[in-house]
Amino acid sequence: MPAVDMHIHTVHCGHAAADMTVENIVRRAEQVGLQQIAIAEHVWIYNHLSKLDPLVREFDRIEPSIKVYLGVEVDVDPCYTDGRLSEPIPSKFRPLVVSTHAFPDSLLMWYEDIRVSKRTRRRLLNNWFAWVTAAVRRNDADVLAHPGVLISREGPEVRFEGEILDRFAEFFAVMRDHGVAFELNEHVKRKFLSPEQRDSYYNLPALAVELGVKLSIGSDSHKLEQVGDFDWISNIAQQAGVKPSDFSIYDGPGLVKTPNC
Ligand SMILES: [Zn+2]
Ligand SMILES: [Zn+2]
Q1: Domain count, the chain
Q2: What pLDDT shows up at residue 235?
Q3: Which of 76, 82, 121, 148 has its CA 20 to 30 A from that of 141?
Q4: How many angstroms separate the alpha carbon of residue 190 from the centre of ligand 2?
Q5: Which is more confidently placed, 158 or 93?
Q6: What is the value of pTM for the model shown?
């Protein structure tokens, strides 16, 4: 896998370790041999982009010996079904990592136990696919964060095999056409409800690359020791039969620091 980590959080998100400063993250990334990283801080529905101002100032001060981007992880706005983002993101924040942490039209968050009827669960699932498809069509996203995690909350019986792969196939075709990468996200291993979900997850990236979707890599670190830790996703990539040419790591414009500049 490429030596990059394109999804790292900082102390500014409010739920990461206190030592997750940009400076510390960069030092850690250099130590573990990464060549490129992206800070991708949360922009939720309830926090304003201006909360990232201190992060921008911190970013301005670093002098890295690797390439460092300042991107965001922005949620699709769950109050609307049209795929708009929680907040429009200025084009300087790249990569644009688009994410879903709540079900559309329900505000059911990913960590909540969904004690609803089977029918409602079906509806949530259908809504999710329609919603993220709209989000991919509508926004200039570079990466879709942790695909499949939110719908795993539909219940432990959801496995990434069989019928659900047909739904993903349609969605991945839209991602491919819009140049949105599928994120191999290390944090996902902590989020599934059942071992079956974890064990069948490799089917998603396998299907994505088969359909021509490129892969991005992110630890989704909230602690320093997680930066560049790709234990689980290395395995997933192997199981999925991923090739080096299946990765496409963001290297476009944006707030970026390169060595000696
Ligand atoms: Zn977070
Ligand atoms: Zn994240």
Answers
A1: 1
A2: 96
A3: 121
A4: 13
A5: 93
A6: 0.94
